[in-house]
Amino acid sequence: PTNEIVLLDMKKKEVVGVNDAAKTYWKMTTARYSQIASLALVAMGVVPKADGSFDVPDPMFVSTGDTAVIEGRKCRKVKIAANLPQGLETELWIGDDLPINSDTMIEELRLVLGDPKGGNYEALFAQLATLKGYPVQQVTSAMTPKGRMMSSQTLLTYREMKVDAAEFAVPKGYTLTEDPITMMERLAAAQRGWVGVAAPLKQNKPQV
Predict the structure, then answer these.
(1) Inter-axis angle of helices 102-113 and 121-129, nearest 10
(2) Coil, strand, or helix at residue 141?
(3) How much is the CA Rg of the chain, to the nearest whole Å?
(4) Beta 24-29 vs 175-176: how paired, if at all?
(5) pTM, entire model
(6) 157 by DSSP, 3-state: which?
(7) Where residue 196 falls among pLDDT bands split at 50, 70, 90?
(8) How far apart, in whole angstroms, are the C-alpha atoms of residue 153 and residue 136?
(9) Count of alpha carbons within 13 angstroms of residue 193, beta-carbon side
């Protein structure tokens, strides 16, 4: 989401996204929100299986040797080592001089996924731990019939502080809008011929 604040309430098992600029908000269950993280893992080389489990590439990341300064932070570039779905590319820019590191990233992912145990999750978290630092920027691109579509997430600020409970409430006057998963499902239903992760599972049989 763009310019949104995402609030996770694990007691209510509810997630709310607030967009102050548009004065809108969306909400969904934590179980449904975990689908976003699952989709993000595909872009990092994780391969889902029919039985609900998944394969974790080893290694998951490879250093490119490239460096850059992003939002004032010196970063090093890593790419996904595994073969990604056709048309999909992902790169991470890792910062090592932050007060947070890959342990924080793993804690965040555990929270979003509902604190899963066992299976290949520990293998996944072990691969993420090899990053050492924290992703300052993640760039993912996918090929579509209209050309390459790119999305990115950038860490702008980070701070730890006590927050009043009232700050987690949706402000009065904000309009309930479509959540991001429903939006993606709607767009996928309206589009045909996507290349990569959004490609239809069933292909039309050739005419003879």
Answers:
(1) 150
(2) strand
(3) 18
(4) parallel
(5) 0.74
(6) coil
(7) very low
(8) 8
(9) 4
